[in-house]
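Researcher: I'd like a candidate sequence for this fold, 166 residues long. If you have to choose between options at a position, lean toward the conservative one.
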């Protein structure tokens, strides 16, 4: 019986030694899970802010378009002060958008369906598939397209019809 008693005491001692190690292990895991949660929550907050900025910028871009149209109309008339004032507002708004990571989409060269929206294709001497006219500028916020550039794309030149003999 004494041998059984000794074995039981050894088992109890081993269990008592394992309990603090298991508790330490659980606490470490809990601390690691909490750190992961904090990092994930911070990433989600940054994403919400970015999406909120994108919505605001989407609303500001039409204002920039209106100012560009006013500048074009002002160049045709002699009202230099109006033109200068509109230019100042246009520069300010364009600078504001640029500081917040907004950039105009490049429309030189080939049509890119990821950043361009083809409104029509027109026969042209230019290379087929190239952008020949910009109807409305497009913008990106970082790498994300906020509004695609609306463009006219070059189509192959129309075949000439032979003249009918009378």
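Model: Candidate sequence:
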């Amino acid at each position: 019986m004494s041998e059984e008693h000794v074995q039981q005491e050894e088992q109890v001692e081993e269990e008592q030694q394992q309990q603090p190690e298991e508790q330490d292990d659980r606490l470490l895991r809990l601390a690691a899970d909490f750190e992961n949660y904090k990092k994930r929550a911070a990433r989600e907050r940054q994403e919400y802010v970015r999406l909120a900025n994108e919505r605001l910028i989407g609303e500001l871009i039409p204002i920039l378009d209106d100012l560009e149209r006013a500048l074009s109309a002002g160049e045709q008339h002699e009202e230099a002060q109006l033109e200068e004032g509109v230019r100042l507002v246009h520069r300010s708004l364009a600078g504001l958008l640029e500081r917040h990571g907004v950039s105009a989409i490049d429309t030189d060269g080939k049509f890119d369906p990821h950043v361009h929206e083809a409104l029509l294709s027109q026969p042209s001497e230019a290379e087929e598939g190239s952008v020949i006219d910009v109807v409305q500028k497009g913008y990106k916020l970082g790498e994300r397209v906020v509004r695609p550039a609306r463009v006219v794309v070059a189509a192959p030149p129309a075949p000439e019809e032979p003249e009918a003999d009378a």
